[in-house]
Amino acid sequence: MLRSQLNSLRTVDDSLIYGQPYETSDGTTIITVARTGGLLHSARPVGAFVVHEGAVSWTPAVDATRIALMGEMIGLLAAVIATLAVLRRPPWPDLSRVVAIGRDSRHT
C-alpha cells in the first residue's frame, strides 16, 4: 500500500492552473496563474496575465520571503565555511616550531 502511494506521488504532473478572469473598472482584465505539484499537491502563484487595451503583458509573482531566506542561508553558509577555515588553519604564524638562530651546526 505504501509503495503504491509513493509511486503515485512520482507520477504527479506539475501543471498550471489559470484563475477566472477578473475585470477592473478601467477595463483591464487580470488572469492569475498558479503551478501545482510537490508532495502536498499545493498551489504556488507563478504570475498573472494582464490584458489592457488589447495588449497582453506577463507579471511574474515574486516571493520576497523566499528570496530573503535564500540570502540568509547563503550568509550562514559563508560564515560556517569561514569559521571552519580559521579553525583548520589559523591566520597567525605557527609558533610551535623552534628555530635556532645564530647557531651553525658545522662549528660545534
Fold and architecture overview:
Helices cover about 30% and strands about 30% of the residues. The chain has 2 helices and 5 strands; from the N terminus they run αβββββα. Strands 1, 2, 3, 4 and 5 form a 5-stranded antiparallel beta sheet that branches. Strand 2 and strand 3 (about 30-35) form a beta hairpin. The longest helix is centred in the last third of the chain and has 25 residues, at about 65-90. It is rod-shaped and about 90 Å long.
List the helices and strands in order.
HEEEEEH
Unreliable stretches covering 5 or more consecutive residues: none
The quaternary state of the protein chains shown equals: single chain
The helix count comes to: 2
Q: What do the pLDDT scores average to?
A: 79
Shape: rod-shaped
The major β-sheet equals: 5 strands, antiparallel
Q: Whole-number radius of gyration?
A: 31 Å
Q: For the terminal residues, how far apart are their CA atoms?
A: 85 Å
Q: What proportion strand?
A: 25-35%
Question: What is the β-strand count?
Answer: 5
Q: Percent range for helical residues?
A: 25-40%
* Category by helix and strand content: alpha+beta
